[in-house]
Write a structure and sequence with these properties.
With 595 residues, the chain is mainly alpha-helical. The chain is built from 27 helices and six strands. Strands 1-6 form a two-stranded antiparallel ribbon. Its main location: membrane.
Amino acid sequence: MGSYMGGCCRLSAIDEANHLISSSLEPHQPRRVPPPSLGIPNMADRKPSVDPARKGSAFDQPIDLDHVLINELGQFGLFQLRNILLVAIPIIMSAFMSEFVFSAAAIPHRCRIPECGEVEKSTNYDREWLANAIPESDSGFASCERFAPATGINGTLDYCPPNIFQTNTIECDGFIYTRDNSVVFDFDLGCQEWLRALAGTLSSVGTLLVLPITGYVSDRFGRRMALVISVFNLALFGLIKAFSVNYVMYLAFQVIQTTLGAGTFSSAYIFATEFVGPKYRVITSATCSSMFAVGQVVLGGIAWLVQPWRYMIMTLHIPCFLIVSYYWLLSESVRWLLSKRKFDEARRVLEKAAQVNKREISQKSMNALMRPPAAVAKAEPVEADPGVLRTIIKSPILLRRVCTTPIWWITTTFVYYGLSINSASLSDTIYLNYILTCAIEIPGFYTAVLILDRVGRKPTLSGGFFFSALCNIAFAFIPNDMTVLRLIIFLLGKFGISMVFTSLYLFTSELYPTQYRHSLLAFSSMIGRIGSITAPLTPALMEYWHGIPTVMFGAMGFLSGVLILTQPETLGTKMPNTLAEAEALGTPQSKIQSN
């Protein structure tokens, strides 16, 4: 299990990026020290093993990339801003893989009545004689059954009397649809709701399968190559999907596209965060998440303007091919170059960053980066990994956390993606509903950033869970004719879970010791994908009662909100380096002592 979870950590580029973010969020200490980051050992609490006579020399404090960003290059300058603006475009494009919300949208349908002259599935949906042929349901006419026809009697499209039908009902053998802008119409998926919802589930499965692929490409060939390949795959297989001749082909390319292209967000995310100083990593993280929300808004707008669904998919994906030019426009990640000992190229990128930021990097710092310490802690993870399972079992506190944090992640992804997908069923204006549901994420992200360091991690997370849960449960019992109130409550539920999404990486990483932080953070994130895989299936449950999905979201939210309260507050505490420090979280000894 230890090697498995360690592998998960290395394979998930997005989890690595968020570990970099969360590690930079350590509370401010009386003395300034470089926070831990990707590939850089945490030296914050290590006492210098040097002779007092050498005090004041370079041995006092290690010179790493964070040190150089803070003291010389600038934590956020024109170079970093240019990088963020460039990668914002592929982050926006990474949201386009959610187009199944519209291309595979549910369409109101009813049985086709051939005895009354209906031979095409695109004929008029509403007929004056419809009550004679189809039984009524709670939402109007039944979608999947009709009255059995009487033998030897036929009507016409204009006149179809009651005596043509018997009183017993039978299943439909054909369907009439209200509109044709969905694969449901093209591939005749009436009354196959679970099959229709499979598109979203397979998309989420692809985001799980992409982790080892993107992780390998990113570690072996660099962040820039991983980004270009991911966007190219996203564009290519998305474009092919627009020409699907049957639903099996559509589903196949849905999972292929996400499996080979879903690394777009994580690759771009790492680009944006790796070269930003610790002070600005939180706001950069929130900005990247906001750009994804902007991409969802763009998706909703294009789906609204460009129809049918095949043209919509082509409009979304053809411009993505332009990102191939980023291979020449973007500089490779300095952290990756240093980790691969590509020092000449790293030097060129650092000198370019200094020039663009109008700063200077000293020769001493450059030499320190080009000549990293020879024997820094390389043996530590190797010896620690095999013991992670034994350590978890022996520590009741750590065991409770390992059993608890994945539930938070499952709930967060389940509710977050579930609300986005179910927004299409709010009313007939599915495009506006989706746009509003995605746009509300942006204030949610930044609200979490503003309050995390003020009120604490537990109030932010539990408050977000409870608030979202309350809104979701209330939504299920609001009458359908109160459209505006339903929309407001629904959006507030999404706002609450967006706050949680932003905060979860930080709180999870602060609960685990440095030795196992990457492994257990990645483990929680991987298990959490169960939520994103099952979320697309929830609209099918509305067939039994319209409130089932949101009540499920609410129940999961309340459960996770309560579980948050079982863990210690980490605001104002040191990031635990050892198991003993992690177990002591919440005690006076874990607090930062100010001198």
